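As a warm-up, study this chain.
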Amino acid sequence: MSLTTEITEFVQKVVGAMGLALTPAIEETPEATSINLQGEDGGVLVRRGGEGLQALQHIVATAFRRQLGDDNRVVIDCNGFRKDKDLELRQMARFVAEKARSSGVPQEMGPLNPYERRIVHLAIAEDPTVTSESIGDALMKTVIISTKK
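Now compare it with the structure written out below.
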């Protein structure tokens, strides 16, 4: 049994135990394996800014940490919620980068969880004129975006 199949079955058991009827759709990309749960019960996971989805993501990451290692990433989504949020976060990062460039003043984004910070850092890395760094000592950190000197 492949690791993706094992993770998908685990996710189905967890959402089933929650009493939710959701169907997983798997998408493999070079960056990560995405398991998008689809169905009318998805509202439970995306309520309150996707807290349930984040919790499910954390459970999967913790349960499969050893098998996944550092190179393999599994992203749990529900009805495209995370995909939409990621797009929004990338657009915001580009907007803040433009603001940093035009004003010459470093700009802050946050507080962001590790997953959100990764999305921001990857978006900023696409622009050779700006740089980003995370500051803070808790789980939720702030990303500072500034022009390259």
